[in-house]
Amino acid sequence: MPLPRGTRGLQTVPIPMETVMRTRHAAMDGFTLTELLIVLAIAAITLMIGAPAMGSLIARSHASGAEASIADSLRHARTTAVMHNTRVLVCPSRDGRRCLKGDDWQYGWIVANDADHDGQPDTGVQALATIGALPAGTRMITSAGRGQLAFQPSGSAGGSNVTFTVCHTRDRNGKSVVVANSGRVRIDSPDAAHLQACLAGFQQ
What we know:
Elements: H1 17-27, H2 33-83, E1 88-92, E2 109-113, E3 129-131, E4 138-142, E5 149-151, E6 162-168, E7 173-179, E8 185-188, H3 192-200
């Protein structure tokens, strides 16, 4: 049948299925070398930007863990002293058996009964709690002259307030755990003098 004047004939040419499948497979092929290099460059830049932030986050996590650990030990010691009507020590220790002298707690500490008031755990009595060394780069000190705390049956800590300062060498910051004369424990921001004294220990 002749087509109307001015109208071109359109001829439909079937496309083989094999050609269609080859086209789809080509579109689904992997990245070109240029695209892969771009993706790797973006990933490297992202890691460079995120690494310092991640390191700071880990540092804060370590410091926070140390604060919580000593605060828990102090509260445990106070509660035990009151409930069992006895004197309970919290002191720095390297071996988990004897108290160390000094104000550096980074090697660990113990919570123990001290019924004979000699400033050391009672002989033949198992410690109430033993905490190991802090992670590398984390340090904890107490107020000068207060190398250990002794909670009385009344729950008081005796003497003046005691400040534990936890610091971390990576972000040069930290927290304080303060024990009032009454025995109450709270976590606070450190004052500049205690923080500097804590950080100075990393340089020794």
